[in-house]
Amino acid sequence: MEGQNQSMPIIFYMIALPNHPELQPLFFTIFLVIYLAALLGNSLISTIIATNSRLHTPMYFFLINLSILDIFCTTAAIPKFLQIILSKEKIISFYGCIAQMCLFSGVLSTETILLTVMAYDRYVAICQPLHYSTIMSRRTCILLAAAVWILGFSNSTVQTSLIPRIKFCQRNIIHHFFCEIPAVLKVACSDTYVNNIAIIIADVLLGMVCFLLTVISYTYIISTILKIRSAEKKKKAFSTCASHLIVVTLFYGGVIYTYVRPAFNNVLEADKVISAFYVIASPMLNPIIYSLRNTEVINALKKLLGRKLYPNI
């Protein structure tokens, strides 16, 4: 199929459930419930932290940033997908697709760096506890958060700015839930060599470097915890980083599969399932993971609910 002139209207057909049209109402309900749960959970976590002065620490400051990113992540993908499920045409415009890619790629890049910063925060808290307040000062945390957002969305801007240079056919079928860069590149009608190189560079500079830094941080953390003699202190030290470690494992599992795996291992259905997990399920699970394993958050939630239910007490 020959590529059309880029000035012609370009349409992307989102065919996420081609073989099961009868299941679309069920999927609509499931995705809507998950989206609302992700919004509620992350908004609740942010509210709990913001309204409780005891949680105004670096760890919870970065957790608010993670919650905001999770809200952006689900909002970038799910509402449009819900609209596509209900519509007969199942289309998204070229610039709508670009906008979705830009926002989602920015969130993904930013979250990758943020999880590394959160791992460093846990490293300082456990391995350098006497210097924690000095190293992770308020000013440092704000600068780190700003750098995380700027670097993440700068990478997204570079990646998505390369998309318009590609020739696309007038009608393109994307077998995915949303416009993700690897999925869109598969339907290009011209060479995507430059885009693939840009993705590899981003994988190395962001993905692999952040992953290695996170692994190094946890190597020191685990080594330090194992040296603690008291079983109670050892358990307490591990509990402060267990939630973050679970979130990191879930996040990197999906991202590495989608962006770093060999190009010849190309299974569309598997791509959709994995992407749906770290775009839809992970933002919903993150608040649950952090709240269920954190007594401070649970106590703050009880206090907040008590204040709402019994304001005069």
From TrEMBL:
Keywords: Cell membrane, G-protein coupled receptor, Membrane, Olfaction, Receptor, Sensory transduction, Transducer, Transmembrane, Transmembrane helix
Family: Belongs to the G-protein coupled receptor 1 family.
Gene designation: LOC117348141
UniProt xrefs under PANTHER family: OLFACTORY RECEPTOR
Protein name: Olfactory receptor
Cellular component GO terms, alphabetical: plasma membrane
GO molecular function, one term: olfactory receptor activity
Localization, UniProt: Cell membrane
